[in-house]
Amino acid sequence: MCASPAPAARERREEKKDDDGGGTWPFFLGFAAMLIVILSIGSQGAGPAYHVAIDAVAGLDPATDLARPTLSPEFNLTVRVDAGPWGGVCLEPGSAVAVSYHRVPLAGVAALPSKVCGTRSVALVATGSGVRVPGADLDALASDLRGFGRGGTAEFEVTLTVPHEGRLMVTSCRARLGDSAALEAPCEVSVVDSVAPAPALPPATG
After folding, report:
1. Which residues neighbour 161 within 8 Å (Cβ) at sequence distance 6 or greater?
2. Integer Cα distance of 79 and 109 in angstroms
3. pLDDT, tens only, 118-177
């Protein structure tokens, strides 16, 4: 017949178990706090991610508008900003947008005078007036707009210049009309340390 452990020895073993279990919690809490700090620093260093979609286009009808000597296009844009879990969806004052085709400026949004925010995205309207497109690019644009799909196959370049932490972020995006999948693809971002002019807008004729 085996003797049962002495009460004092059993109490010491139970106290040791309690001490071991309690010692792991500070370690896990400290590790979690360190991980949050690292992720936060990494997110701040990378900056927000920008996504752009073209919802609608006016003034570029191949049958009527493109036959005119100058164009006045209008682009309805959706800009989504992924600024991380602690950021909002805003474009800061001084942000500007330019839309082009084959590097030919078509429309733009001048530097915003105030912050523009939305719940998940920001809607902007880029306009152009008196735009002249070179013949070869105009023919290519007409062909692309007549392509398959509601908006054809024309792919436009959208450039955003956004102030960020004392510097300028220049984002380059490519989007087709009505292509909602463009909001899933982040734009290419480059950071400019010195102040640079906003993207050139199409010149207006007097």
Report:
1. 95, 96, 97, 168, 169, 170, 171, 196, 198, 199
2. 13
3. 767 889 999 999 999 999 999 999 999 987 555 578 899 999 998 877 888 899 999 998
- For 24, the enclosing helix (H) or strand (E) is helix 7-46
**Amino acid, single-letter form, for residue 98:** A
Q: Print burial letters for 162-184: b (CB count within 10 Å at least 16), e (below 16).
A: bbeeeebbbbebebbbebeebbe
Q: What is the pTM of this model?
A: 0.69
42 touches 36 (CB < 8 A) = no
Q: CA-to-CA distance for 23 and 133, rounded, in angstroms?
A: 71
CA distance 112 to 94: 5
What's at 65, amino acid-wise? D
